[in-house]
Structures
1.
Amino acid sequence: MSDRRRLAALLPAIVAAAVLAVIVRAVWSLPPEAEGLSVAVSRVAAESGIDNKITVVLLDLRGYDTLLEVAVLMLATVAVLSLREDRDALYRRISERAAPVLAALTRLLVPLALVVAVHLVWVGAVRPGGAFQAGAVLGAAGILLALSGYARPQWVGRGAMRSALAVGLLTFLGIAMLSIVAGGELLEYPEQSRKTLILVIEVLLTLSIGASLVSLFLSSASEGPKEAGR
Amino acid sequence: MSLLEHLPVLAIVVPLAGAAMAFVTGPRRSALECAATSVLTLVPVLLLAARVLDSGPQRYAVGGWGGPLGIVLLADGTAALFLVLIGIVGMAVTVYAAGYFPTPDEEHPGPGHGLFWTLWLFMWASLNALVLTADVFNVYVCLELVGLSAVALVTLTEGAEALRAGMRYLFASILGAMTYLLGVSLLYASTGLLDMEMLSSALKTPSVASSTGLALMIAALLLKTALVPMHFWLPTAHAAAPSPVSAALSALVVKGSFFVVLRLMLDVMPPGHLGGADTLLGVFGAAAIVWGSVQALVQTRLKLLVAYSTVAQVGYLFLVFPLAGAGGAVLSSAFLGTGVHALSHGLAKASMFLAAGVVLKRFGHDRIADLAGVARRAPVLAATFALAGVTMMGLPPSGGFAAKWLIAGASITSGDWWWAAVVVAGGLLAAAYMFRLLATFMASPGDAPEPAAPLRVVRTEWVPLALATASFLLVFAVPVVTQLAEAGSVLARVGGVAP
Amino acid sequence: MTVWLPVLLPAIGGVLTFAMGESRSRSRVAINLGAAAASVAVVIGLTVDAYAGRVATSTVAMLPGIGLTLSSDLLGLLFAAVATVLWGVTLVYAFGYMSHAEDRARFFGFFALCIASANGVALADDLVSFFLFYEVLSLATYPLVVHSGTGEALAAGRRYLYYALGGGSALLVGVVWLTVLAGPVSFAPGGAIAHVAAQAWELRAIFGLLVAGLGVKAALVPLHRWLPGAMVAPAPVSALLHAVAVVKAGAFGMVRLVNEVYGPELATSLGVAAPLAALAAATILFGSVVALRQDDIKARLAYSTVAQLSYITLGVALCSPLAAAGAVAHLAHHAVMKITMFFTAGSLAETHHVKRVSALDGVGRLMPITMASFTVAALGLAGIPPLAGFFSKWLLGIGAVEGGQAWAALLYVTSGALAVGYMAPIVLRAVRPSASERVEGPESDLVLLWPIVAVALLTVLFGVLAGVPGSPVEWAARAVAPSFVGWTP
Amino acid sequence: MNPATLYPLAGAFLFATGVYGLLARKHLLHKVISGNFLGSGVFLVLIGLAGRSSAESPDPVPQAMVLTGIVVTVALTALALALIKRYHTATGLTTFDPVDEEQL
């Protein structure tokens, strides 16, 4: 091992140690107690009547963060879609592999998954849950359908799937803009229709997140390395 | 409440919705959709800039909350300047890309299954969002949006080289984003605040944790801005990307993270609490100017030359920090110079990458040694490189000259004349690598047959020429830039630009 | 507004020339000649106004507190007139000379841009505006130097850039520094910075930087080395740019610097004028002596230019009114004389492929009119009355004596003798009977011949009519008079 | 040593491990996992520091930041994996440099 390589191996360790030292020193210096914004958030939560303070932060106080986060997810999906190997043969192989047992299981699980997803969306307003969790369940159902041959993997990138992927972000944006039309600022929900609007966003987000996960899964199908053994 | 007050969000929401719509409409119609969105994005940006010029900084409390609980968008003069840069280059990229990428059909939807347009609008939206936000955590989300779209756009080029470059870029991006977020968490733990303007007053009494947090955030942003010695990921990524993407990356993306550095260093951090950080950034900047230029000088590929030139030109942006400490006229002159440099380099660098794309398409390669005779065969391309080159060298009447004049003036006024020496040396080095290229263009082409290129590709060469001309004549736009800079929070503090 | 036209008209002409492309040569001729004629008309109009005391000034906002300002003062107009009038004449010559060359759109486009920036240099009202046009001029010349695209041309271009950009950097630092100390510096006859509170060493250092920057174009030794190399450019470029517009921009800058930035008094009291004068004197001797030994005609002319440019620099560095007037007059006189010679050299190369002094034998018989014109210019350069060169040298010499610096007068005389030394062989060889079989061959093509005769005639007219209002001598005296309090021509 | 410092310190350690892995490890999947270490480290710091609130429940703002951060990290990981897969298909490599490939 040359000196250069040895140095190259040592450098990451030095950097990591330095980072560790810097963080530890900073953490150590912090006072043991700090309120942060918790009191202020509690006050707002009490006024708005939503118990889950994290939900208040995510959807109301910092709803704009969440809007951009939805954009991040859609963007990542689009990015992965742009990288996919689009070959019918590839998709056919996925469907053909479907085993009867899997198909039976799918028939059983998918309806259940749908119910769970709906439930998760609904309770999101009061308890842990919401669009991301529901979307994950929905996505799992979608993947099952594709693997068992009930849904065709070629649909990745087709019109309906694209619409499903985008509808969450578009709805979120639309409702955000709606509050402007109603005379408020962006994402300032009108008081009377607040709950309904948030529910609409959550439902359609669930659909988009589910579609995202299915797309992510299916678009990473490949035929393996072209030059195997290199 | 008039619609004009919502201009900041329109500048973000319109391209974001446009991105989603372009995805839904599919590859064949998305170019048209993107063009329409580009226009609709540019309009609020220009109106916003006019409004800032007219009535000063605009604050927008998203959700009606405002700080410290909510997120505030701040469109001051500095932000407006960067928005305008993003808008102009963005529009150019859209127009250029329409001619650059082949017309999509069923068989060939274009690179990345025709998803360029969606990804590009995502990038535009996230850059606008990044520049407008005044919330340190929201910056993190915007940085991730920018990084994701950038990596995806780089890998639209087929082949292992682009994938490798894209992955390097992605890993650098992940390291940067996570370090930034770590910094935010320490800063929040120490102050309980995320809003930049509120942080600015809270930080008048800094603590170990808040200083560490800010240092981590800035270090992360330096990685994203590719300041030497953290530039390793930039040249390959910018060179491997499709040319319209290279233009956006070099002209806009590095400026986006630099903008946040500017905000943090000059707005959020109280003056006088920078420690040695300001000098250190200046030294890195000087090193970048020298190292980037020397690397550009030895490159054999056109796009790599242009990419290393970005590494060098980014260095100039950081000379403002050691000068800022002097305050008053020195700060105002250096700050204005930095703004002008960001604008002029953005225009010129975009034009160079776009022109390099046409070179690639027309001549089938970008080996500098084999580009003799470009001045005769493709005079528009040669003119583009010449005009943009004048900006790189900082010769009049380009924006680069105005920037150098202002920064060198600030440096001499402050007594720290060595920054002026760096600026002058950087101009000479830029002349060396640009004239190496231009001399090749001027050389006799020999007898090699002229390659034929489709007319729609050749026509795209007017877009970079327009950008290059704008950067060449930018000194005459400095009065407007000055007005914008004076509407920025930094110069408002020192009472504007002294004549 | 009119004051912008001498810059804008050639610039627009240049851009249109680019835009029209290579093939449309008729439109190219029309546009360039049109722009030249219009520019000449505008400069004449401005001059008439300036003689009547009406000086136009116009500013476009630029950097904070600094505008791009042009002003039609007599001194600037003299240079602008020389550049613009000779541009028109050279265009005629160049259309003939370049009729079969490649890349003509590029050539004439940059040619026009050079004149636009030379006019900018001439009319700039302040140091920053001057610097701006000076640098544009540097850049616009490069494509003309490397026009042929050969290795030799590219190498000459590279050397030109080293000097031009290095000098430009020195100039930039000097101008920034001075602006930081004194604020924006507008040219003012008699000096603009006498009131500035600054250390003497700072002002001396700045003077040094500015001289280094201007000295490149003015070809002061040791910054002259790019000039002979740049002769690889096509003849019209050598004629107009490397004898008139570009190099005179440097010499003209010296006039502005000494007379209108520092002012003769401050330049003398700071002790910066004397070293400049010494450097210019050395350059005169050096250029003249080296010219003696050049066999290549264009190289000989180039070294002659090196020497003659320093006539101007020395004249202004003597800080005496008559010498300054002589210097400014020489700016015009040398222009017409040297352009005649370069036209001739171009025609010799084009018509008979003669490029060396040693190959000139007998050419004078084939091209009597061309060589007669050359002879007029050569006599003028040597300072033979009543040709143009005599009067500027006379003023320079008298001024030197009046300023108590008789050594400079002696130098001018010596250098005149040396000029005879390097010009005489060209004329004598041309009229000598040919040893070879060169007995017949054409005179210069008409389109080349007319410009040669025209500029040679100017050499005569400038001399014969030296006392008439509007002649370079009288114009120059008026132009420098305000710099010297209490002196009237 | 209370939870309010234990979690952040553990987070710091995770983060440093991630930094080391991202810089030192050659295999691309190792790099991705290191990237996730970075994320987990930051989230631990955030959660731990949120616990310093004296109110009945921890500060919700850092918790919301963590939730957002998780989604972003998922998105980044997805793209990284897709890139690696595509790269592997194109070149058969699992590292940037074929030289490292042989050493693994």
Note: Chain D is about 80% helix and 0% strand.
2.
Amino acid sequence: MSTSSRRRLRPDRIKELSLFGLIALSVVVFGSVVEGYLSGRFFNRVTTSVVVVVILAVAQSLVIVSRNIDLSVGSIVGVSAYLTADFLQSNAGANPVLAVVIAMAVGAALGAFNGAIVAYGGVPAIIVTLGTLALFRTLVSLYSGGANVTADVLPDWVIELNASTLVSAGGFDLRTTFLVAIGVVVVFQWVLARMRWGRRLYAIGSNPDAAAQAGIPARRLILLSYIGTGSLAGLAGFMFMVRVGTISATAGSGLELESVAAAVVGGVSILGGAGTILGAFLGALLIDTLRLSLVRVPQVSEFWRDAVLGILVLLAVIADSLLSRRLSGRVVDVSAVESATSSTATAVKGAADA
Amino acid sequence: MRSWIRSHRWESLLALILIATIVGNTIMAPVYLGVGNIVNLFWLSIEKIIVAVAMAFVIINGEIDLSVASVMGFSAAVLATLHENAVVPFGIAIIIALVVAALAGLIQGLAVTKLGIPSLVVTLAGLIGFRGAARVLLEDGSVGDFPEWFDRLGQRTLVGPLPFGLILFLVLLALGWFVLERTAFGRKVYVTGNNPAVAKYSGINVEWLKLRLLVMSAVVAGVAGILFAARLGSVRGSLAEFYELDIITMVLLGGVSIFGGSGSMLGVALAMFTVLNIRNGMGLANVDGIIQTGVVGTLLIGSALVPNVIQRFRVRFPTVGRYEPDAAEP
Amino acid sequence: MTSKRVWIKRLAFLSVVAMLVAACGGSDNDTTTTAAQDSPATTAATETTAATETTAATETTAATETTAATETTAAATGVVTISPAESIPTTFLPKCTNIPVFPQANDGAVEAAGELGSEEAAFVGPADCGDATGQIDFMANAVTQGVAAIMVSNNAGDELAPSAQAAADAGIPVVSWDSPIPSAEGESVFIAQVDFDETGTVMADMALEILGEDGGQFAVLSATPEAANQNAWIAAMEEVLAGPDYADLDLVDTVYGNDVAEDSLNQALALVDSYPDLELIMAPTTVGIVAAAQALTQEGLCDEVKVSGLGLPDEMREYTLSGCAPQFALWSFQDLGYLAYYVAYGLATGQIEAVEGQSFVAGRMGEYTIEADPTRDAGLRVLMGPFSVYDETNVGG
Amino acid sequence: MGELVPVLEMEDISKRFGATRALQDVALQLYPGEVHALVGENGAGKSTLIKIVTGIHSPDTGKMLMAGGEYSPRDPAEAQRQGVAAIYQEPSIFPDLSVAENIFIGHQGRGVLVDHRQMEREAVEVLARLDIELDPALPAGLLSVAGQQAVEIAKAMSLDAKVLIMDEPTAALSAHEVSRLFRQVERLKELGVALLFISHRLGEVFEISDRVSVFRDGHHISTRPTAEVTEESLIREMVGRDPADFFVRNPHPQGEVVLAVSDLGRRGVFDGISFEVRSGEVLGMAGLVGAGRTDVALALFGIAPAESGSIVIDGAEVVISSPRDALRNGIAYLSEDRRRLGLSLPQSITTNVTLATLPRYTSGLGVVDRAAERRDTAAIRERLGILAASLDTPVELLSGGNQQKTMLGRWLNAEPRVLILDEPTRGIDVGAKAEVHRFIDELARAGMAIIMISSDLPEVLAMSDRIAVMREGSLRGIRDRVDADQESVMALAVGVG
């Protein structure tokens, strides 16, 4: 069991690599079918449309690694987007930072609500968030009374922010919003990989009982993770407002499934304990690339798109699971465990005789 | 009785909520207690509760099927397409539609059992894919003009005040209860949901069990889809869209653990009745749809939260055995 | 129930009086119309005769209803001013409650109810418009409640027909507005905001206006592939485009944003990318048109591609003034709700009949006549109109 | 060590749960550098004591002193901070995390950042102190039970625990691994750690402990230097009665060959396995964990079918590709892991007993004849002496011994020709152990062919007619009971001499 060899075959890395490969593949394939596909424009389209889902995929992963889930992120996006827009409507002079803070604060509050019930109420996360999925949506609908906040009442910077570009080369723009999303990915990839409480979230998801015995304050950490998820969803809500401009009470509905799909396709184990933020990001990117690419293929009619997308996602998942199984070469099976056992047993023996 | 309550905490709680709902509705809306309305409140959601019965099996077994609503739409779309192009007699078309639904379930079942991909992922893809397939078949059109008997089946009463769908549901519910509680199959569903390894080591063919359940779930969804077509009198690609959440909500509210291995058909039935009565009562009281959704959501959280909170306060008197000193010692 | 009996008695008495008045009033054709306006007596007469029979009908059996119908043909020839009779419970059922146009329509209904001294209609509906068949539950509940009339904007196709039929069987008039029941089964009459063919013409004309004489490429961004009236409008527009004057307008594609802002955004941009020569996006949906305008504005594409279609002035103002959406059209949803309520009230109180040729005066909006709906194989309609086309001159702000 | 100050003192600790008195007026002192064995049957109160010391429960009365100071931990975390660590029979590791992270995850105040490289370096050091060699970056889930325990000990070390509690640490280990564990224990002693050692294997208690305390029914019976006690006296104190018959096995006639296996193989796991078992015979299987004994059993039971070789039952060759086939051919397998592979814990005794034999109780429609299954289960319960409130009691509420009996009952109910027992007495108390042994003997007399896999060498030697020894996936020899002893078997198993 040479250390280095195993390092190279860490399941997470494999997952990320295979996802990256799949994205590259799909780009190449579509590039050969659609003319004018491999353009800066398409790059910009993807990078702007993917922002919201990427942030939500990160948010979702944050709770999934600790063996939880948040189905209410879509509704949180709706609430924070609407309230923020409503705030800007009445205080046009407010500066962007304040707006972001408000959006994230709203999200954090809702997340705290979820987290408190999950962590301290002992109610399964899926039940809690299935409930708040409806509840939060109801709140925003009642608040709005069916009225939209329209783009013209929002300050100009909101509209401009979406298209604002930092670097641009040959039509390939690096949009501010996309960079923010990348920033979120980098930060939380780092948080989950390097920060103690990140690692402890994995620990909780990996073996809750052991976590308790190790004296890890599971409840507090889970509450924290939900607040984190909430505030990220709030940020996503802000991004949603920036992109869509006109905010209705139904803003962001359906995003919960997209975020779960992105995370799961990205290799974040639904059973907790495994998966990376980078993977979730790639998962989101893969799905969105596929969706936007399909729109560009004239042969694929309006009505075929969903079907094809579903098939592609399924294929991606299958290919990915087979691929990573092949590469990591460890199938969870009694005999495998046994053989792993014997290998270490002999190793230990070797150590003993030494 | 007392012991029954202790062993059926959840069911008892739901029963209380249900009674409260019925009383409340009767006070708020005099028309509520009419036979017509009672039949109506089931009939208006008949497809959802039919599918929920099958979903209960799947979740107790430790899996989940997010694709049911899409399969409903898909099978109905198949039926409609066959009818529109008059390729086969309508009866045959129904059978073909059901076979197609079964195949949908089979594909997903194989992906879960043979490839070992979590059912959540597989059926998530199914949710997108089969909805897409339905759209492919019907595009922006809507197909109607089904045979007279078919429309009647969905829209008129069959026995006394009962329409066919309601009778079918009651039969399925009873059957579901019986299979789950009294048969070897049900036994295996529980044990497998609780711990697949134990089931495997006891000679139960876990994969075959899961495969059958996922196919069954799809077939029931197919039946429900066709029934819906009959009730609406016409079909379009979006039929039953977004139903999966309502269905899963009812099952979870019924006390079925999302991790599998526990829950009862009685609980699921009580949950269905509660949700339907609340929605109906609020409807008669002219409460807007969005508020109804919120109330059901709150109910879902509350019914799970309240017992735990109560438990907190009476930790002094723990359930016998649970805290037995060395019970857990291997 | 008791209250109902009371007003039946009252009506019975009134009708007797009415007979007498009618007798001496005579029926001089060219005066009736004017009389309808200035002499409350006669209108009271015609109105109440109708009232008794039809209420009798709704109260008792279909048998008497037929007789009622035959007798009221007399009333149908005259112009009825729908006026306050009694307060009736009604249901105002939109496609969903959280899209701005529907609360607006409801405001109209409330206004009308106020004028007619009737209680406000119950404004209930599905949580979101994606739920095509959600209205069925509300129809059924309304029937159970025994309301006097249902006003519905059909969100599906004929899926709603069975429950509308059930309402009709229970003697409850179903007035559809904004979007009809295609087969007209169970539907008393459809209040058409505008003529669907006219919608086609208006959209084609706006396209011509924006693209200019030399024409050019344009595409349609619609709601859901299922949306009944969008599809009808697009079909109508395509017919118009066949005409010689529009020869240079090239409709290259029709895509669907599902009335979801984000999908609509992506679709609009995809159109721009897929068709380099595209000059106009025509969106016959209030959600789609805003999303398209927003997308083009953000990407700074407004100079190359314009947006038009059906939109709300409040939401479009900014883009119209910026020149991104130089022209768009819409009707007043408030008026639509107002008219719908008047008709429903008239039918419920028996002042008018859902028969071809029935003319009536609906408060501030004046006179209308029920006619056969040319845009459907079956069914009656009241055509509201007109279209108001908005540009920077009249969009306000 | 008398003049030493105790590191941990307990004074008349009492704890009760509802009606049950778990502990009564228990007093105990732990001295640095001693191994203090704690013995007693299940229900004696050992676990409760541990849970109190580790802060999972708080005592109703009495107090604890840590190095003279008041010690009353609110939770395991605080217990750890104060220097009390515990490792259990089933290691509580994080399968997805690396060895290094497993060691350091519980640490407080190491800053908010994790430097993986440094952490792995430290991990190697800590493991080295116990002379264990493991890849610190390896996901702990891939380690054997022994490896995982080593990680847990390392964890305790890294927390420089003053008191280390070992609850049944050897239960899942092979004899060889046990000796390694004991070497690690010696190291800990040298480092002045006080060890509280719980085991049902009295042999180990005598081998490793300095003092031994006996518990019974929540009472602290005695504490004496190990040197001064005998096995008999201990057992007498533990069970409160005379240990009449342990390890009884008077030879009796054997019948025909029931199962004959020849040249059985499964790539990368085992190969060339040939042996036969006669009716009425007990074939013991010795070897290190991972030697492939369980794999052979799983092959015979159809969980992980063999790829080569033949299986002959009653002279007829059979193909076994699933547990179904195995059961059809009269082969039953009692798994080594009760909780993970054996029992459906929330389900009733009845459900668990009849699980493998459901077809017998079902009519054409698959309806279960509950009367019949209750009848048979009641019989089984009678026969095995399963102690439980009722047949409907969820097995998770039963003691380890009764759980084991329930699982055994399932296979008896299947009336197999060949019964494979994998670690049949792991982690159950002396009383239950004796019953199980008596029972195995009974079955053999009744003509069943029994294969008994066990890492408890005395048990193998006492119970088997013949002993098959496996090493690294192949059969290294079969000895008759008469000419087998601990040393010779061990030698075969480890491969020396």
Note: The mean pLDDT of chain D is 86.
